[in-house]
């Protein structure tokens, strides 16, 4: 049977950080991922709003790791693990393969959580993958194009109404961007659609936007969005969604309201991807909120000291499910495997600060006790994300695209082609 020293599952922030460290030390590893890309999720909203193309934020993981001869990349979906035999099972091209390991690093991330209402996935837009961003971009362009041609005022209103559920970083950046698109891009190119015609409603169950920041920064975010024309609805739950709209309610005061819209975006929480549940079952590891594995202090899983889980699929001391936790976890585990740190060394998280973008020239940043808002925080957000974007060409293209979109009015990636249904021949006969 096929064996290697280390198997890494996933190709996100955690997996890449671990693979680079192992590769630099010449440690043999096989990275298995269900996608060939390393996706830079924080810039997905810019793909959805036409600023960047998918290729610029999702370079090939195989190309990134090509310089490490001890590494091998395989496209496949890991579906099972036998911790006692030290084997993983993965599916590739419809065939099941078994691969033995000495150490397993699981970094399979998370997807959107619908809190027991999985049917909401059918009628909402998400932002987790390149396919999600592409689907949302097409929907935004379609709505503006159809609003331009329809003569039905009610339909026009619904086409130009965007409901965003969840005021975490993803919801805030999308709400801010869509409103900005209306004024800075579409208003210039579709003369009969003004920014005032476009309604963006941001709904949040907690009492403030960006609840993880809280206080002054959350208030600044809310004020900035409202000043830009976004309707911010706080302390309100979404209890029902269908393809025509959403029902909002506040359990405390009996408030209930139905909003109609063609586009509803769900960004209300995360749930660990399926492999976390498989690992939990096979290792006896407990799971917490969103099915995230409650890992040990050294990031090992269950009672197995040769299986690690890192990033969004893992939960430790309430650390945020964000890229620094994934990257630092990947480096920590690789240091143990490379013999640079003793086995069992507890993971220590270095908090380098948090930031969130709101719209053009507005962001918030917290580093220790220092809190920044406005243009400075916005430049800092762009600079930090540029540093972590993989590849010189991608960084160069990103800077050029940002200049075009944020200083000018360009959205170079807003292509949309209507899918034309074949005409009904009876109708054609009648028309003739
Ligand atoms: C829209 C958005 C904006 C964000 N903005 C920020 C931000 O500004 N700052 C920040 O710090 N964080 C941000 N985050 C969070 C950050 O992106 C995540 O914390 C980070 O990606 C987690 O890394 P990970 O390695 O755990 O998982 P991921 O990056 O999600 O990677 C998981 C990988 O595992 C693969 N996979 C899943 N299941 C399997 C399987 N069974 N077999 C094989 N492969 C599998 C997936 O294809 C994927 O490649 C954002 C996230 C989103 C969605």
From TrEMBL:
A GO molecular-function annotation: NADH dehydrogenase (quinone) (non-electrogenic) activity
The EC number(s) this enzyme carries: 1.6.5.9
Key words of the record: FAD, Flavoprotein, Membrane, NAD, Oxidoreductase, Transmembrane, Transmembrane helix
Residue span(s) of domain FAD/NAD(P)-binding: 5-329
Pfam family name, one: Pyr_redox_2
Catalytic activity: a quinone + NADH + H(+) = a quinol + NAD(+)
Sequence intervals crossing the membrane: 372-392
Family affiliation: Belongs to the NADH dehydrogenase family.
Protein name: NADH:ubiquinone reductase (non-electrogenic)
Organism of provenance: Rhodococcus oxybenzonivorans
């Amino acid at each position: 049977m096929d064996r290697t020293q280390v198997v890494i599952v996933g190709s996100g922030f955690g997996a890449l950080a671990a693979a680079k460290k192992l590769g630099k030390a010449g440690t043999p590893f096989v990275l298995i991922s269900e996608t060939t890309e390393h996706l830079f999720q924080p810039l997905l909203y810019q793909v959805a709003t036409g600023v960047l193309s998918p290729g610029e934020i999702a370079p090939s993981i195989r190309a990134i790791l090509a310089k490490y001869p001890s590494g091998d990349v395989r496209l496949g979906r890991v579906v099972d693990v036998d911790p006692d035999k030290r084997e993983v099972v993965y599916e590739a091209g419809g065939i099941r393969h078994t691969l033995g390991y000495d150490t397993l690093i699981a970094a399979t991330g998370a997807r959107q959580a619908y809190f027991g209402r999985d049917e909401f996935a059918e009628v909402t837009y998400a932002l987790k993958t390149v396919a999600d961003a592409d689907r949302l971009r097409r929907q935004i362009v379609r709505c503006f194009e159809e609003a331009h041609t329809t003569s039905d005022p009610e339909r026009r209103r619904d086409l130009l109404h965007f409901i965003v559920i969840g005021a975490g970083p993803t919801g805030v950046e999308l709400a801010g961007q869509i409103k900005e698109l209306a004024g800075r891009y579409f208003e210039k190119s579709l003369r009969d659609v003004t920014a005032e015609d476009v309604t963006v409603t941001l709904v949040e169950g907690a009492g403030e936007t960006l609840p993880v920041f809280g206080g002054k920064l959350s208030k600044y975010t809310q004020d900035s969005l409202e000043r830009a024309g976004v309707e911010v609805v706080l302390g309100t739950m979404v209890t029902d969604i269908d393809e025509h709209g959403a029902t909002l309610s506040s359990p405390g005061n009996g408030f209930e309201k139905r909003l109609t819209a063609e586009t509803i975006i769900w960004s209300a929480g995360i749930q660990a991807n399926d492999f976390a549940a498989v690992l939990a079952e096979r290792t006896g590891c407990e799971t917490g909120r969103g099915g995230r594995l409650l890992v040990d202090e050294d990031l090992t899983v269950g009672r197995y000291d040769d299986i690690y889980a890192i990033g969004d699929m893992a939960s430790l001391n309430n650390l945020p499910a964000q890229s620094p936790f994934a990257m630092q976890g990947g480096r920590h585990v690789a240091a143990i495997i490379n013999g640079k740190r003793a086995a069992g060394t507890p993971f220590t998280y270095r908090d380098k600060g948090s930031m969130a973008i709101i719209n053009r020239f507005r962001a918030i940043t917290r580093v220790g006790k220092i809190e920044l808002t406005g243009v400075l925080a916005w430049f800092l957000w762009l600079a930090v994300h540029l540093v972590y974007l993989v590849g010189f060409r991608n960084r160069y293209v990103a800077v050029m695209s940002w200049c075009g979109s944020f200083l000018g009015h360009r959205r170079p990636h807003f292509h949309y082609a209507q899918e034309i249904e074949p005409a009904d021949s009876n109708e054609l006969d009648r028309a003739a």
